[in-house]
Amino acid sequence: MTVAVTLTSSRCTGDDYKGNYSFEYGGPHRSPTERSAEGQELARQVKQRDRVLALLETSAEPLDAHLLADDLDLHVTTVRFHLNSLIEEGLVRTRQLESTKVGRPRLGYTAVPKPSYTDLVALLAARLGGTAEERERTACEVGRDWAGMLGFAPADTADAGAFVIDALSRLGFETRSATSAFGNHELTLCTCPLVEIARTNPEVVRGIQRGLIQQLLDDNAATFGARYTAAVFPDPQDGNCSIRLALRKSDRDAEAS
Question: Strand, helix or coil at 105?
């Protein structure tokens, strides 16, 4: 009999997807060889589907089933099977193409663009206006507001550096190094989730980072036993989204300690 399978897989881009596949099922008493063959067939279908979608994603123009089959060295029936599955999942859409022959019009296929909230934020960042310094100040206020919306739990440690590292890791930042001396902390961050925006508007990203961290520090000053000032410095060796973050005690708190 034929069994339909919904398989969740993950491509190298990190995007999850679900694919619908079918294969012949030999019943509950299959041999290990039969089970292995079914698994291999399923894997083969997933790989074919990946290739069809990848080619559509990199094409600037709609492609028809015959062209896809030729480029991928697959039978056109196999390509149509995967196209129908991708259409059902909302990853591919069709478009009528001009035909030079009389008869049924050609049908083209295009990958549905993935919505990018990063692109939306980048467009907004580019339209903040003013000088780079003004944009960074505005972005800093946005970062403060963002910290309030995220609703972080109050700090459970008096170590400001450890608290900031934990908070940023929850947002997708990675800490490359951390040093502490006399109550001050130096952190080097990489793998910033705002890297796409940083390529075009680094001052906006610095402002968001500084505002976010400063708000977290201000909200937990009583637990830390001191007020800290966050300063963000771009790392010229590793690009705009690898930064050095300095947490400095205010002058009055520094003198008291």
Answer: coil
pLDDT digits (tens, 9 = 90+) for 160-193: 889 999 998 888 888 888 888 877 888 888 777 7
CA distances from 177 to 174, 185, 186, 210 (A): 9, 11, 8, 18
**Mean pLDDT, range 123-138, rounded to an integer:** 84
Same domain, yes or no: 160 and 188:
yes
Alpha-carbon distance of 189 to 245, in angstroms, equals 7
Whichever domain contains 87, its CATH number is: 1.10.10.10
Cα angle vertex 207, ends 156, 129, to 5°? 150
Model's pTM, two decimal places?
0.55
Long-range contacts of 137-142 (CB under 8 A, 24+ apart): 137/207, 138/207, 139/203, 139/204, 139/205, 139/206, 139/207, 139/208, 139/211, 140/207, 140/208, 140/210, 140/211, 140/214, 141/211, 142/207, 142/208, 142/211
Q: Across residues 216-227, what is the average pLDDT?
A: 93
C-alpha gyration radius of the chain: 27
Q: Tokens 């080097």 label which residue? A: 188
Whether residues 105 and 170 fall in one domain: no
